[in-house]
Amino acid sequence: MSGHLAFDLAHLLAGSLVLASFMLLYQDRLYALINVYAGHALVLTLSVAWQAYIQNAPHLYITAGLALGFKAIIIPVALRRIVQQLGIHREIETVVGIGLTMLAGMALVALSMVVMLRVTGAAAPIAREDLAFALAVVLLGLLTMVTRRNAVSQIIGFMSLENGLVLAATGAKGMPLVVEISVAFSILIAFIVIGIFLFRIRERFDTVDVGAMDQFRGERR
Amino acid sequence: MMGFAFERMEAVLLIPLGAAALLAFLPGYRLSARLNVAAAFLTLLVSVSLLLGDRSAPGRYLLIDDLNIVFIVLTTFVGFTTSVFSASYIGHEIETKRLTPVYLRFYHAMYQVLMFAMNLALLANNIGLMWVAVEMATLTTVLMVGIYRTHEALEAAWKYFILGSVGIALALFGTILIYVAAQPVIGEGIDAMVWTELVAHASSFDPALLNVAFIFLLMGYGTKVGLAPLHAWLPDAHAEGPTPISAVLSGLLLNVALYAVLRFKVLLSANDAAVAPGPLMVTLGLVSLIFAAFMLYRRRDIKRLFAYSSIEHMGIITFAFGMGGPLANFAGLLHMTMHSLTKSGIFFAVGHIAQVKGTQRIADIGGLTETHPWLGWSLVLGVIAIAGFPPLGIFMSEFLVVSSTFARQPLLAILLVAGLLIALGALLLRLNGLAFGEPRGAVAPVKASYVPLFAHLALVFAAGIYLPPQLVIWFQHVSSLLK
């Protein structure tokens, strides 16, 4: 295996993850958003599997398998069912316009490149690129969360953010506890999704729009 | 002897875990409340024996040293007293049918899981393990905040969930960056995440990477401390959950998150080329203090009032640790201990007050010293303590923070004093309406457990008058560890 191919493919996959994060930013339909997220998780799966292969770290295949089975299949299916059963509005309300969000997204990506590439001079090139892309994915995930008012799309923003973290953790060569951490995160996400469903945020708040929840704040009673 | 010490270290973790498993299956709330108390007491005993006995060498996962034992004893002590308070609080919730027996079983099991997670976070010698433990503590408290399943409780739990998750996500990114910084020096694998190894080699880490990592860790764990721009979850979570959980959140969980920040601060201080972590913490602490002090005036809900007061005090503690140096660190540790004791004591009183009045609205509660003299006067004493009046414990620690700051940064000290006075005004204003004047709200007698409440207040009172020299020497030693 030539070093070039290993690097180029890792670079390509991490870059695709950033691209998928951008795609999450401009979706305005809930189902489309869920589909793009499934794609996001699929890219992560490939990226983690590739890292497992080039680092010769078989335990990372567990993380890859988890990303594929749980994040790319089970969660999107579950979210679709939740949207159906709770009768959530299919359109997503955004806080600011798409154009502005995209500009902010670009600024965040540039920021993470500048910061991470500058400070990781000593690290291996693959880890450097991965960390820079991972920070971009994390920041874009945060942006998705703050520009959406709807609980399901906030969750998707959070999950894409978490994919960025898994990318960073697998990119750091030989990092211990990656599998444990990815399992812990999956449990967290499962809790969030089950929580929405069990507590029937739709039923309780009449909407999964987090903005509407504000009226229940104790102090405005 | 080494083996014995190691077993005790694990016992602090295993007792809560075993109790949680047992409590999840035990029917009958009286029995499980008692078992909860017993388990908490046993954990406290073991942690005290850890404090007094000799220690084992740090392992790859667990560690006990002079810094974390202070936190562990405090955590297990407040955990125990809160479980006693919880037993009588829960009895009332069952009578008024706010909680069903099934939820109660869940509540008790979660209480012990929370104790386990906090002890694990404190004992962890591995930054990955510490992160997992803090996440676990977040999850369990989220579940308990939402346990009443009202609009407000669910909204509070949701907000806490989302903000807490973002916080721990940022903290994880910081943790990964620390590993990336350590890996070229220590080598691949678990050793590059072991805290004692990290500190030993920190001077040869890449300083730029450490700086970026610390920013993420400070913002991430700072969210859980409740520092100002990231505090939005805190008042809601305190106000809408069961009061024993408010007491544990304010008294313990915020400390655990702060402990994580402190660990990384020590790591950064060990590298001369890295940015000084102090000024960042000073800024965040001061902003939290002043912001919370102003917000105190607009509170209409009694539990929210004291939640904002927790933000204020966490700000002071972060400020003190950020200033650094032997005196400020000493003051920070003392203030943390005093705040934990006082604030959980106040929540014990507030819990019973809210139960007897059937409301948390400050406007609907009044004249407590007339209708419920024991509760009313305890609240008065607690608020006087938390506002920082002499001769109580918090006055002493605040005085130390202020005087050590005056000696080094007079301008900052002026801001600090301003924040303290503004908060004091708000607390006294609210206290006046709550405790004195025309009685408002229900006047039915209350079945309260005063023992934990009085124990906390007595300790705070005693600490204000006389600190045992052993304790002072101990805290001074720990302050020197913190740099």
Brief write-up:
Helices cover 78% and strands 0% of the residues of chain A.
Characterization of the model:
The complex is a heterodimer of chains A (about 220) and B (about 475). Chain A is mainly alpha-helical and about 220 residues long. Chain A is about 80% helix and about 0% strand. Chain A has one domain. Chain A is built from 9 helices and no strands. The model of chain A is unreliable at about 205-210 and about 215-220 (pLDDT under 50). Helices cover about 80% and strands about 0% of the residues of chain B. Chain B has 19 helices and no strands. Classes of the chains: A mainly alpha (about 220), B mainly alpha (about 475). The interface between A and B is large, with 48 and 51 residues.
H/E series of chain B = HHHHHHHHHHHHHHHHHHH
Number of helices of chain A: 9
Oligomer: heterodimer
What percent of residues of chain B are in strands?
A: under 5%
Largest interface: A-B, 48 and 51 residues
Total E-strand runs of chain A = 0
What's the topology here?
The complex is a heterodimer of chains A (221) and B (483).
Chain A: H1 3-26, H2 30-55, H3 60-85, H4 98-119, H5 125-147, H6 151-171, H7 178-198, H8 201-205, H9 210-213
Helix pairs in contact in A: 1-2, 1-4, 1-5, 1-6, 2-3, 2-6, 3-7, 4-5, 5-6, 6-7
Chain B: H1 2-25, H2 29-52, H3 66-95, H4 101-123, H5 127-145, H6 151-186, H7 195-201, H8 207-225, H9 233-240, H10 243-269, H11 277-295, H12 302-323, H13 325-357, H14 368-371, H15 373-387, H16 393-408, H17 410-435, H18 450-465, H19 469-482
Helix pairs in contact in B: 1-2, 1-4, 2-3, 2-4, 3-4, 3-10, 3-13, 3-18, 4-5, 4-10, 5-6, 5-10, 6-8, 6-9, 8-10, 9-10, 9-12, 10-12, 10-13, 11-12, 11-17, 12-13, 12-17, 13-15, 13-16, 13-18, 13-19, 15-17, 15-18, 16-17, 16-18
Write out key terms for the chains shown.
heterodimer, A: 221 residues, mainly alpha, 78% helix, 0% strand, globular, B: 483 residues
